[in-house]
Amino acid sequence: MAGFVTPFVVMALAYLGVVLWVNRNRPPGDEISVLKHPSGLAQHVGASLDITVWNVGYAGLGKGSDFITDGGKSRFPPSRKAVADNLNAIIETLSQTRADLFLLQEVSDRSPLSFWHPVRTRIIESLSQRVAFFRSDISSRGLPFPIRIVHGTLTLSNAIPVSTQVVKLPAEPTFLGGTIKRNYGLLVTRFAIENLETRWVIANLHLAAFDPEGATRFKQLEAVFDFARHEYEQGNYVVLGGDWNLALAKSNFPHTTDIKQLFWLVDFPEDKLPPGWKIACDKTRPTVRTNYQPYVKDENYTAIIDGFIVSPNVTINKVTTTDTGFEHTDHMPVSASFSTKPQEGLK
User: Fold this and answer.
1) Are strands 302-303 and 48-55 parallel, antiparallel or unpaired?
2) Which CATH number do you get for residue 334?
Protein backbone atom coordinates (compact mmCIF):
# COMPACT_ATOMS: atom_id res chain seq x y z
CA MET A 1 0.00 0.00 0.00
CA ALA A 2 2.77 2.43 0.88
CA GLY A 3 4.44 1.83 -2.47
CA PHE A 4 1.18 2.70 -4.21
CA VAL A 5 0.22 5.72 -2.12
CA THR A 6 3.53 7.51 -2.44
CA PRO A 7 3.59 7.69 -6.28
CA PHE A 8 -0.12 8.53 -6.31
CA VAL A 9 0.36 11.38 -3.86
CA VAL A 10 3.35 12.65 -5.83
CA MET A 11 1.38 12.61 -9.09
CA ALA A 12 -1.59 14.31 -7.46
CA LEU A 13 0.60 17.06 -6.02
CA ALA A 14 2.35 17.48 -9.36
CA TYR A 15 -1.02 17.76 -11.12
CA LEU A 16 -2.27 20.34 -8.63
CA GLY A 17 0.98 22.27 -9.01
CA VAL A 18 0.62 22.37 -12.80
CA VAL A 19 -3.04 23.43 -12.55
CA LEU A 20 -2.14 26.18 -10.08
CA TRP A 21 0.68 27.47 -12.31
CA VAL A 22 -1.45 27.39 -15.48
CA ASN A 23 -4.36 29.22 -13.89
CA ARG A 24 -2.19 31.85 -12.22
CA ASN A 25 -0.13 32.53 -15.36
CA ARG A 26 -2.59 32.08 -18.22
CA PRO A 27 -3.02 35.14 -20.43
CA PRO A 28 -6.22 37.18 -20.06
CA GLY A 29 -9.16 35.76 -21.96
CA ASP A 30 -9.73 37.44 -25.30
CA GLU A 31 -11.95 34.90 -27.04
CA ILE A 32 -15.61 35.28 -27.96
CA SER A 33 -17.58 32.07 -28.44
CA VAL A 34 -20.53 32.05 -30.85
CA LEU A 35 -22.85 29.64 -29.05
CA LYS A 36 -25.87 29.96 -31.32
CA HIS A 37 -26.21 31.35 -34.84
CA PRO A 38 -29.75 31.00 -36.21
CA SER A 39 -30.21 31.42 -39.94
CA GLY A 40 -32.31 34.17 -41.44
CA LEU A 41 -31.49 36.92 -38.96
CA ALA A 42 -31.29 40.53 -40.16
CA GLN A 43 -27.91 41.81 -41.30
CA HIS A 44 -28.56 45.33 -40.07
CA VAL A 45 -30.58 47.22 -37.45
CA GLY A 46 -32.56 50.43 -37.50
CA ALA A 47 -31.94 53.87 -36.08
CA SER A 48 -33.53 52.80 -32.80
CA LEU A 49 -32.51 50.00 -30.44
CA ASP A 50 -34.09 48.50 -27.34
CA ILE A 51 -31.49 47.00 -24.98
CA THR A 52 -31.80 45.21 -21.63
CA VAL A 53 -28.93 44.70 -19.19
CA TRP A 54 -29.10 42.22 -16.33
CA ASN A 55 -26.61 40.63 -13.97
CA VAL A 56 -28.34 37.27 -13.42
CA GLY A 57 -26.01 36.23 -10.58
CA TYR A 58 -25.46 32.71 -12.03
CA ALA A 59 -29.03 31.97 -10.82
CA GLY A 60 -27.57 31.47 -7.36
CA LEU A 61 -28.27 34.78 -5.65
CA GLY A 62 -32.00 34.81 -5.09
CA LYS A 63 -33.88 36.23 -2.13
CA GLY A 64 -32.68 33.49 0.24
CA SER A 65 -28.97 33.85 -0.55
CA ASP A 66 -26.11 35.69 1.09
CA PHE A 67 -22.53 35.65 -0.20
CA ILE A 68 -19.26 35.55 1.67
CA THR A 69 -17.40 38.09 -0.47
CA ASP A 70 -20.15 40.63 0.23
CA GLY A 71 -19.88 40.15 3.98
CA GLY A 72 -22.18 37.13 4.26
CA LYS A 73 -21.43 33.56 5.36
CA SER A 74 -22.22 31.41 2.32
CA ARG A 75 -20.09 30.43 -0.67
CA PHE A 76 -22.88 28.60 -2.48
CA PRO A 77 -26.64 28.98 -2.99
CA PRO A 78 -29.01 27.51 -0.39
CA SER A 79 -29.87 24.45 -2.51
CA ARG A 80 -29.94 23.00 -5.99
CA LYS A 81 -33.72 23.53 -6.02
CA ALA A 82 -33.26 27.22 -5.20
CA VAL A 83 -31.05 27.60 -8.28
CA ALA A 84 -33.61 25.78 -10.44
CA ASP A 85 -36.39 28.08 -9.22
CA ASN A 86 -34.24 31.17 -9.77
CA LEU A 87 -33.28 30.07 -13.27
CA ASN A 88 -36.87 29.37 -14.29
CA ALA A 89 -37.89 32.84 -13.10
CA ILE A 90 -34.96 34.51 -14.89
CA ILE A 91 -35.90 32.77 -18.13
CA GLU A 92 -39.54 33.77 -17.75
CA THR A 93 -38.57 37.42 -17.21
CA LEU A 94 -36.25 37.42 -20.22
CA SER A 95 -38.91 35.79 -22.40
CA GLN A 96 -41.40 38.51 -21.46
CA THR A 97 -38.96 41.38 -22.11
CA ARG A 98 -39.00 43.16 -25.43
CA ALA A 99 -35.43 43.92 -26.50
CA ASP A 100 -33.28 43.89 -29.60
CA LEU A 101 -30.27 42.99 -27.45
CA PHE A 102 -29.76 41.41 -24.06
CA LEU A 103 -26.48 42.17 -22.27
CA LEU A 104 -26.18 39.68 -19.42
CA GLN A 105 -23.49 39.29 -16.75
CA GLU A 106 -22.53 36.47 -14.37
CA VAL A 107 -23.76 33.72 -16.66
CA SER A 108 -22.30 30.35 -15.69
CA ASP A 109 -21.90 27.06 -17.54
CA ARG A 110 -22.54 24.10 -15.19
CA SER A 111 -20.52 25.75 -12.46
CA PRO A 112 -20.27 24.69 -8.81
CA LEU A 113 -21.55 28.20 -8.05
CA SER A 114 -24.91 27.22 -9.59
CA PHE A 115 -24.86 23.57 -8.47
CA TRP A 116 -24.09 22.53 -12.05
CA HIS A 117 -27.32 23.78 -13.57
CA PRO A 118 -26.81 24.65 -17.28
CA VAL A 119 -27.60 28.33 -16.73
CA ARG A 120 -25.99 29.54 -19.96
CA THR A 121 -27.52 26.80 -22.11
CA ARG A 122 -31.02 27.25 -20.69
CA ILE A 123 -30.95 31.01 -21.28
CA ILE A 124 -29.72 30.62 -24.86
CA GLU A 125 -32.33 27.93 -25.61
CA SER A 126 -35.10 30.14 -24.20
CA LEU A 127 -34.10 32.91 -26.65
CA SER A 128 -33.46 30.53 -29.51
CA GLN A 129 -34.06 32.99 -32.34
CA ARG A 130 -31.08 35.14 -31.33
CA VAL A 131 -27.39 34.93 -32.04
CA ALA A 132 -25.49 34.34 -28.79
CA PHE A 133 -21.96 35.56 -27.98
CA PHE A 134 -20.17 34.56 -24.78
CA ARG A 135 -16.93 35.71 -23.18
CA SER A 136 -15.63 34.11 -19.99
CA ASP A 137 -14.23 36.39 -17.32
CA ILE A 138 -13.76 33.61 -14.76
CA SER A 139 -12.61 30.25 -16.10
CA SER A 140 -10.40 27.43 -14.92
CA ARG A 141 -7.99 25.29 -16.91
CA GLY A 142 -7.06 21.72 -16.18
CA LEU A 143 -9.83 21.08 -13.67
CA PRO A 144 -12.32 18.24 -14.26
CA PHE A 145 -16.03 18.89 -14.81
CA PRO A 146 -17.34 18.86 -11.23
CA ILE A 147 -15.03 21.67 -10.12
CA ARG A 148 -14.28 23.54 -13.31
CA ILE A 149 -15.61 27.10 -13.65
CA VAL A 150 -16.81 28.89 -16.78
CA HIS A 151 -18.50 32.16 -15.98
CA GLY A 152 -18.89 35.40 -17.90
CA THR A 153 -20.87 37.83 -20.05
CA LEU A 154 -23.47 36.86 -22.65
CA THR A 155 -24.84 39.04 -25.45
CA LEU A 156 -27.94 37.91 -27.36
CA SER A 157 -29.13 39.76 -30.43
CA ASN A 158 -31.93 39.48 -32.98
CA ALA A 159 -29.58 40.74 -35.71
CA ILE A 160 -26.14 39.63 -36.90
CA PRO A 161 -23.33 42.07 -36.02
CA VAL A 162 -20.76 43.02 -38.63
CA SER A 163 -17.99 42.35 -36.12
CA THR A 164 -17.23 41.44 -32.51
CA GLN A 165 -14.28 42.34 -30.31
CA VAL A 166 -12.90 41.93 -26.81
CA VAL A 167 -11.41 45.07 -25.27
CA LYS A 168 -9.25 44.05 -22.32
CA LEU A 169 -9.55 46.00 -19.08
CA PRO A 170 -7.14 46.26 -16.14
CA ALA A 171 -7.39 43.40 -13.67
CA GLU A 172 -7.20 43.30 -9.90
CA PRO A 173 -3.82 42.19 -8.53
CA THR A 174 -5.41 39.45 -6.40
CA PHE A 175 -6.47 35.93 -7.36
CA LEU A 176 -9.84 34.29 -6.71
CA GLY A 177 -9.23 31.50 -4.22
CA GLY A 178 -5.53 32.21 -4.59
CA THR A 179 -5.63 30.52 -8.00
CA ILE A 180 -7.76 32.15 -10.71
CA LYS A 181 -7.49 35.74 -11.89
CA ARG A 182 -10.65 37.39 -13.14
CA ASN A 183 -10.17 38.59 -16.70
CA TYR A 184 -12.08 41.81 -17.24
CA GLY A 185 -13.04 43.04 -20.69
CA LEU A 186 -15.72 44.53 -22.90
CA LEU A 187 -17.70 42.16 -25.12
CA VAL A 188 -18.23 44.45 -28.12
CA THR A 189 -20.69 43.94 -30.96
CA ARG A 190 -20.93 46.29 -33.96
CA PHE A 191 -24.10 46.50 -36.04
CA ALA A 192 -24.69 47.94 -39.48
CA ILE A 193 -27.40 50.61 -39.52
CA GLU A 194 -29.84 50.75 -42.40
CA ASN A 195 -29.03 53.67 -44.74
CA LEU A 196 -25.97 54.75 -42.71
CA GLU A 197 -22.27 54.01 -43.08
CA THR A 198 -21.60 54.31 -39.36
CA ARG A 199 -22.38 51.62 -36.78
CA TRP A 200 -24.07 50.95 -33.51
CA VAL A 201 -21.28 49.91 -31.15
CA ILE A 202 -22.60 48.02 -28.14
CA ALA A 203 -20.34 47.02 -25.23
CA ASN A 204 -21.39 44.50 -22.59
CA LEU A 205 -19.40 45.19 -19.41
CA HIS A 206 -18.97 44.04 -15.83
CA LEU A 207 -16.46 46.04 -13.80
CA ALA A 208 -14.62 45.04 -10.64
CA ALA A 209 -16.46 45.07 -7.33
CA PHE A 210 -14.15 44.57 -4.37
CA ASP A 211 -11.06 46.60 -5.28
CA PRO A 212 -10.18 48.92 -2.38
CA GLU A 213 -11.75 52.38 -2.86
CA GLY A 214 -12.48 51.55 -6.50
CA ALA A 215 -8.84 51.77 -7.60
CA THR A 216 -9.16 49.08 -10.30
CA ARG A 217 -12.62 50.29 -11.32
CA PHE A 218 -11.28 53.79 -12.01
CA LYS A 219 -8.50 52.36 -14.19
CA GLN A 220 -11.07 50.24 -15.99
CA LEU A 221 -13.22 53.31 -16.62
CA GLU A 222 -10.29 55.05 -18.29
CA ALA A 223 -9.82 52.09 -20.63
CA VAL A 224 -13.57 51.90 -21.32
CA PHE A 225 -13.77 55.56 -22.27
CA ASP A 226 -10.55 55.45 -24.33
CA PHE A 227 -12.20 52.78 -26.46
CA ALA A 228 -15.60 54.50 -26.51
CA ARG A 229 -14.26 57.92 -27.48
CA HIS A 230 -12.33 56.41 -30.38
CA GLU A 231 -15.49 54.75 -31.69
CA TYR A 232 -17.47 57.98 -31.32
CA GLU A 233 -14.82 59.92 -33.19
CA GLN A 234 -15.34 57.53 -36.11
CA GLY A 235 -18.97 58.65 -36.20
CA ASN A 236 -20.35 55.53 -34.50
CA TYR A 237 -23.18 55.42 -31.98
CA VAL A 238 -21.85 53.98 -28.74
CA VAL A 239 -23.82 52.29 -25.96
CA LEU A 240 -21.95 50.94 -22.93
CA GLY A 241 -24.22 48.75 -20.83
CA GLY A 242 -23.99 46.39 -17.88
CA ASP A 243 -23.02 46.15 -14.24
CA TRP A 244 -20.75 49.10 -13.46
CA ASN A 245 -20.34 48.28 -9.76
CA LEU A 246 -20.41 52.04 -9.27
CA ALA A 247 -23.35 54.09 -8.05
CA LEU A 248 -24.66 55.64 -11.28
CA ALA A 249 -27.10 57.87 -9.40
CA LYS A 250 -27.53 59.08 -5.85
CA SER A 251 -30.22 57.12 -4.02
CA ASN A 252 -31.77 56.90 -0.58
CA PHE A 253 -33.95 53.80 -0.62
CA PRO A 254 -35.16 52.54 2.80
CA HIS A 255 -32.72 50.24 4.64
CA THR A 256 -31.31 49.37 8.06
CA THR A 257 -27.93 48.14 6.83
CA ASP A 258 -24.82 48.91 8.89
CA ILE A 259 -22.49 51.22 6.96
CA LYS A 260 -19.69 48.68 7.30
CA GLN A 261 -21.53 46.43 4.82
CA LEU A 262 -21.16 49.08 2.12
CA PHE A 263 -17.38 48.65 1.88
CA TRP A 264 -17.65 47.72 -1.81
CA LEU A 265 -19.87 50.58 -3.00
CA VAL A 266 -18.19 53.54 -4.72
CA ASP A 267 -19.84 56.50 -6.45
CA PHE A 268 -19.38 56.90 -10.18
CA PRO A 269 -16.64 59.54 -10.62
CA GLU A 270 -18.35 62.32 -12.56
CA ASP A 271 -15.01 63.82 -13.59
CA LYS A 272 -14.27 60.68 -15.63
CA LEU A 273 -17.40 61.02 -17.77
CA PRO A 274 -16.35 62.54 -21.13
CA PRO A 275 -18.09 65.81 -22.08
CA GLY A 276 -21.45 65.23 -23.73
CA TRP A 277 -21.69 61.57 -22.72
CA LYS A 278 -24.81 60.64 -20.74
CA ILE A 279 -25.72 58.14 -18.02
CA ALA A 280 -28.99 56.29 -18.62
CA CYS A 281 -30.55 54.73 -15.52
CA ASP A 282 -33.90 54.63 -13.78
CA LYS A 283 -33.52 56.74 -10.64
CA THR A 284 -36.83 55.55 -9.17
CA ARG A 285 -35.81 51.93 -8.49
CA PRO A 286 -32.67 50.20 -7.22
CA THR A 287 -30.88 47.65 -9.38
CA VAL A 288 -28.80 45.78 -6.78
CA ARG A 289 -29.10 44.71 -3.16
CA THR A 290 -26.43 43.93 -0.59
CA ASN A 291 -25.67 40.24 -0.01
CA TYR A 292 -24.41 40.30 3.59
CA GLN A 293 -27.70 38.60 4.49
CA PRO A 294 -30.68 37.06 2.62
CA TYR A 295 -32.88 39.79 1.20
CA VAL A 296 -35.38 41.52 3.48
CA LYS A 297 -37.19 44.49 1.97
CA ASP A 298 -36.26 47.78 3.64
CA GLU A 299 -33.41 46.09 5.55
CA ASN A 300 -30.83 45.30 2.86
CA TYR A 301 -29.19 48.36 1.37
CA THR A 302 -30.05 48.84 -2.31
CA ALA A 303 -28.42 51.02 -4.97
CA ILE A 304 -28.35 51.83 -8.69
CA ILE A 305 -25.25 50.33 -10.33
CA ASP A 306 -26.70 48.78 -13.51
CA GLY A 307 -27.46 50.82 -16.60
CA PHE A 308 -25.92 52.53 -19.60
CA ILE A 309 -23.60 55.31 -20.69
CA VAL A 310 -24.05 56.57 -24.24
CA SER A 311 -22.17 58.82 -26.65
CA PRO A 312 -23.35 62.38 -27.36
CA ASN A 313 -24.91 61.37 -30.71
CA VAL A 314 -27.31 58.90 -29.04
CA THR A 315 -30.75 59.92 -27.79
CA ILE A 316 -32.08 58.25 -24.64
CA ASN A 317 -35.79 57.74 -25.27
CA LYS A 318 -36.70 55.74 -22.19
CA VAL A 319 -35.04 53.76 -19.40
CA THR A 320 -36.86 51.53 -16.90
CA THR A 321 -35.84 49.10 -14.18
CA THR A 322 -38.12 46.06 -13.95
CA ASP A 323 -39.10 45.54 -10.31
CA THR A 324 -38.51 41.84 -9.64
CA GLY A 325 -38.32 42.41 -5.89
CA PHE A 326 -34.88 40.74 -5.87
CA GLU A 327 -36.84 37.50 -5.60
CA HIS A 328 -34.63 35.40 -7.86
CA THR A 329 -31.52 37.53 -8.44
CA ASP A 330 -29.58 40.14 -6.49
CA HIS A 331 -29.86 42.54 -9.46
CA MET A 332 -32.88 43.80 -11.37
CA PRO A 333 -32.98 44.18 -15.17
CA VAL A 334 -32.70 47.62 -16.74
CA SER A 335 -34.22 48.24 -20.18
CA ALA A 336 -33.70 51.30 -22.36
CA SER A 337 -34.68 52.59 -25.78
CA PHE A 338 -32.09 54.54 -27.77
CA SER A 339 -32.02 56.21 -31.16
CA THR A 340 -29.43 57.93 -33.33
CA LYS A 341 -29.37 61.69 -33.58
CA PRO A 342 -29.26 62.97 -37.16
CA GLN A 343 -25.71 63.45 -38.42
CA GLU A 344 -24.66 66.93 -39.49
CA GLY A 345 -25.53 67.52 -43.11
CA LEU A 346 -28.18 64.78 -43.12
CA LYS A 347 -31.92 65.22 -42.86
Assistant:
1) unpaired
2) 3.60.10.10
